[in-house]
Amino acid sequence: MPHDAAAPKVVAVDAQPDAAGPPRKVYVHGAGRCGECHEKMYDEWETSAHARAASSTLYKAAVANAGDATCDRCHAPLEGIGPKDHLASEGVTCDVCHTLREPRPGPGGADFRLAVDDMVKFGPRCDLKDHYFHRMGCSPEHKEAAVCGSCHWWEPKGIPVFTEYKDWRDGPSAKANEPCQSCHMPDEKAMIATGSPVRTGVPHHGLIGLAGDLRKRALSLEVAVRDEGGALQVSVSVRNVNAGHSVPAGLPERRVVVKVRIKDASGTELATETRQLGRVLVDATGTEVPFWRATKVGSDTRIAPGATWTDAFVFGPPAGGTVEVDVVYRGVSDPVAKLLAVADVEEMLMSSARVPFGPPTAAGRAKVPKTIITKPPPAGKRPRSQGLP
Ligand code: HEC
Ligand code: HEC
Ligand code: HEC
Ligand code: HEC
Ligand code: HEC
Question: Ligand 5 centre from 251 Cα, in Å?
Fold first, then answer.
């Protein structure tokens, strides 16, 4: 993060050093320091999105375009705290979440306090012995969704931008007592710190599943192929089976792209159709724009927990071949990627199905009707209300 002394330093209000008083001692460290003892958490966090919150290409392009210094509140909450301003470039680092107190999720966003006045690190356990490097802070709240929700809910000027917490709160996962951590921080058996006893219930810090494959667990796919007087009718249903909020989640510019392709027996593509699912924000003229320029929601085709999106595609009368359906996660929509000049858009296959079909015959089309269902692996959730040993 470039540090501009003239820019307003917006941090959690209570953590703001008192400008009038004497310089205050603050206790914050870089993740590398924590990683000297907490190697496992460090390795998992280092490759996670939280570590890139202030430095990803997409984020930097967005801030430059938005010209808004208040983005730091969630992306670099240590900005302006203490003498070590370079820590802000670590984004959502260890000392953000482990000093975070009194999170109050709400549409205003970033309502929390960072307790950096003392060398206490807050975590879920209440029976650990203090260590010379830091004391232990007992915070059962670290097992609750509010810790995440204070950043993962923001509706500036009434525009829904980040609503994972709100979606979760109003959906089936909150009722089932499954906080964000139950899917995003699954448990393992591990040492919490080098040389400490192996314990159960140690949360993974990569935040997208143990194997980094949470996106592949979100959706099930059903493809039904029928003959319609020689033409091919393809019905596609995509169901949100494993996410505790709507999919795609997060940034409104995220997209789930459904691609339907017809290939002939030799693999040549004959036809293709795509649909883009997500929350599309628009300006006064109805044009898709990034959230900081938006005045309203243009359309919202995200899939709520347990809900199904369906559409039908009709293709002219091909001979034999294969219907290929791919459901792909895309990190940012095409118009916004273009506007921000971001070329390297993240893509990931979430689900897919292949349905072969034969040529039309007197008795109808060979090998259809046919339905193929692709189910994702289970959510990989942690057992409900697991106690800590
Ligand atoms: C010199 C070693 C060392 C360093 C450096 C260190 N810790 Fe720890 N930490 C420990 C030990 C030991 C424990 C207790 C482990 C146990 O008993 O299983 C612990 C426990 C914790 C806990 C659990 C607290 C609870 O009550 O649940 C948190 C959170 C934590 N550390 C965060 C941090 C953060 C953040 C940093 C960097 C600012 C850090 N630690 C740096 C040694 C260290
Ligand atoms: C201090 C604010 C803050 C807190 C607290 C926070 N997050 Fe985040 N989170 C962010 C930001 C900012 C990003 C975007 C990082 C990026 O992609 O540049 C993010 C990204 C994510 C992602 C996207 C991962 C990916 O690979 O795309 C997930 C999942 C996530 N957070 C879950 C959580 C969960 C679960 C918690 C609670 C345990 C939590 N977050 C707490 C700010 C926060
Ligand atoms: C029942 C399991 C479950 C729960 C509970 C849950 N999530 Fe998720 N989350 C998922 C799955 C599966 C995905 C992947 C689908 C996607 O990217 O939209 C996901 C994706 C995300 C993403 C987007 C990551 C990306 O792919 O860019 C964010 C951010 C996120 N979750 C935050 C949260 C927060 C915050 C909470 C709690 C308020 C929460 N989640 C609760 C399962 C869950
Ligand atoms: C996005 C917020 C977030 C970030 C960033 C984060 N943690 Fe955590 N950490 C948590 C939460 C939440 C828990 C408790 C989850 C649970 O038990 O359900 C936790 C638990 C822990 C624990 C205690 C584990 C146990 O089993 O009791 C340690 C130690 C820890 N984190 C260290 C770190 C270190 C070191 C870093 C940086 C490399 C880090 N954390 C980064 C949110 C975070
Ligand atoms: C209230 C907290 C909050 C504020 C304020 C905030 N963000 Fe974020 N931002 C998040 C969270 C949470 C995510 C993660 C969502 C996801 O992964 O899809 C995120 C993700 C992003 C991403 C995607 C990053 C990536 O690498 O994929 C961009 C871009 C972004 N924010 C831009 C901004 C800009 C620009 C501002 C200021 C105008 C801003 N944000 C202010 C919470 C916030």
Answer: 6
